[in-house]
Amino acid sequence: MSRDFRPDRAPLDALNYEIAQEKALALGRMGRALEGALAKLREFDAANPHSGAPTSSQAARRVLVTEAGHALWMFVVQREACGLRDSRTLMRDYHVPGEVQQCMGAVLSTPTRDAASET
Fold this sequence. Notes:
Structural class: mainly alpha
Oligomer: single chain
Order of helices and strands: HHHHH
């Protein structure tokens, strides 16, 4: 945005400012969602040992990993919309596990979603 005030550009400048604000707010929301999803996964891992875990525990963990992967995907997309293209620092700063990175963008399949796609 130019610092020169021009009356014919004032509405466009105001709109651009509001768009930048919304991008920043959405980036903050997506970052907090990722932090929350990763915290849930870490808490689960702390409470449940990996070795010899029952099938139900493994399934619950898979859901948490998938949810964290989706939150990561949303955050990366929002960062890219803001012009932040390099995700390496994001992965390091948020301590994103490799398995979460691998399922980035995954969406959980639910019976209602499956049934809706068949009709």
